[in-house]
Amino acid sequence: MARGMVVKDRQQADMDEAQARLAAVVMASSDAIVSKTLEGIVTSWNAAAERMFGYPASEMVGQSVRKIIPPDLQHEEDMILAKIANGERLDHYETVRMTRDGRRIEVSVTVSPVHDASGRVIGAAKIARDIGERRRSEQRMASIRAALSAEPGSGDPFELEETTAVTPAGLAPQVGQDATAALGVLEGKPDRAFDQTTRLAAGLIQSPTAMLAVRHGDVIRFISAYGMPSELHEAQAVPAEQSYCHLVIEGEAPVSIRNARNNPIAAPAGLWRHGIESYLGVPIRDRNGIVVASLGVADRTPRNWSLRDLLTLKGIAQQLMRELENRAMLRTLAESEERLRAASAAAGFGIHETRTAANESTWSAELARILGHGSSVMLVPWPGAILAATHPEDRSAMAAHVAHISRIPGAYEREWRIVRPDGSVRWLLDRGETRGPINPQTGLAAQVTGIIVDITERKLYEEKILLLMREVNHRAKNMLGLVQAMARQTAAATPAEFVSRFSARIQALSATQDLLVQNEWQGIDIRDLVRAHLAVFEDLIGNRIELQGPNVRLTPAAAQGIGLALHELATNAGKYGSLSNEAGKVRVAWDQDGQNFSIAWQETGGPAVQEPKKMGFGKTIITYAAETSVEGQSELAFPPGGVHWSLQCHLSSIVEHYATRAPQRALDNA
């Protein structure tokens, strides 16, 4: 039961941590993220939604989402809710919403249904993105494209005519001005593939010069340049206003320049002074349509660029973009794998990916380390490798588990033991998922992926808790039995006297328990035990009370028995013995001689002692209880000069590992 509670608590903690991470991602998102019921009532409203619409979460949660929908577009919400109720998703729906101050803003909305554990649609999650700036950019780009378009009859539909009013100074930098940041693969470093592209463009279009360029702030950087004039090639970058490429990037459209020297837009760039008289360039777009670079060709003399030239250059640009996207994906994948590897190593979990059709599994470097096989990625046979590592006692159950999860898609979880090559046994937890279609011939799913965590320490902790619970139960029963015997044997003339005597004995027992708890039930030093039961006479220790003996650590059982005896002796000495007057003394001495232990209580200087006529419970505790707790022999004598008590036993009865302990004597006499 305790183990189940611990595992359940750990699983709940994992779920709470995952939910906390998800909540942090939602709150940190730059897009407005809103969840709502099937009636359109808002249930969550992140920080970006507050910024976009102007309403704080406190004013929107519990209210209808129609609050931000213009009156003339309320029918859209009916349509959206109907789709969600049918389990349909709405992607990138462009519409208009209203802010708190009454402004209408253009947004792109994606709405997805939210399901409960049974798959029933219970609400919707909406992501809204402000596209107002994008729309304004599109309008600006339309005007630029119009300015860069030729008039009918020019003979070239891409020529910048002298009558065009747009000038480079009037072109505001737009999307694509920093392609390095946007794409992450155009870094300005020499690249053979880029050089092959520019050489191909120049060859197919039969132009002496070709260049691949990106914009970094106010600078155009040439990623690759073929046949470029030496002074430009060496510079590798020029101010944007001194190039033709920025017209393509900012205009997001092809640009054709027949004669740069005579063109009012191209002439200020001054490239004709370097022998570049004509230019044809096309934008390079990613799959989202964002311009990230330009590819252009140039000639040293005025040239009428043909439609065939344009289509050829566009084809090369598209092929280059596919190459760039492939590189970007590979780079992103490599970075993702590196982050996952670093996270795996830091968190101490390993990853396995199994392809059932190939009967092989890939172990991450961290999983190889957990299993004791070094720290490199491994390709191993499946399921033979993991079964070979499994503890013999768990192997048959593990084989059945593997056979089960490989045939049934879905999540799974299992704890089991493995034996490392060095012989050490470790407990592991595997959490994963079986995915993919079922092979009709083998009945196996395509893939099994999971993470494995070493939970040996947790298992040891759980076992320790169970052991402690059993120990507490055992000791509680023993304690109750001892208390019951003390209650039966405590004689008194009146109820009040019984309560007094019984309470004193319970307090003595409590003093010993306190010391055991302080020492985590690992035993008590005998000096601490003696002082605890003489605490009421603390001011007399070192004067009238002498403590002498080596450092000896008693087991819990020995401490309880000797502690009760010391309590009875101290109580008797204070009432009737040597501590009941102003001159009497008590000496408590203990010793270990070879494999034997002894302790003695000697009173002197008190009133004359007479042996009691009957055996009381106190005497029983002093003799019988002490003897049985250490399997020893005790003696209680009542000579006239003072009570004498002694106890002898084998050292192993009171001290664990007694053979390794060297006696250390100390004397409390000051």
Q: Could you give a short description of this structure?
A:
By secondary structure, the chain is an alpha+beta fold.
Structure, explained:
With 670 residues, this protein is an alpha+beta fold. It folds into 5 domains: 1-28; 31-130, PAS domain (Beta-Lactamase); 135-330, 2-Layer Sandwich (Beta-Lactamase); 348-454, PAS domain (Beta-Lactamase), CATH 3.30.450; 490-668, Heat Shock Protein 90, CATH 3.30.565. 40% of the residues lie in helices and 26% in strands. It has 18 helices and 25 strands. It is elongated, with a radius of gyration of 44 Å. 30% of the residues are buried.
Question: Distance between the terminal alpha carbons, to the nearest Å?
Answer: 54 Å
Largest sheet properties: 6 strands, antiparallel
Fraction in helix: 25-40%
Low-confidence stretches: 1-7, 147-185, 658-670
Mind telling me the CATH class of the largest domain? Alpha Beta
How many alpha or pi helices?
Answer: 18
Oligomer: single chain
- Number of separate strands: 25
Assess the beta-strand content as a share of residues: 25-35%
Count up the domains.
5
The CATH topology of the largest domain is given as Beta-Lactamase
Overall spatial form: elongated
Question: Which architecture of the largest domain would the CATH scheme give at its second level?
Answer: 2-Layer Sandwich
**What is the average per-residue confidence, as pLDDT, rounded to a whole number?**
77
Radius of gyration computed on alpha carbons = 44 Å
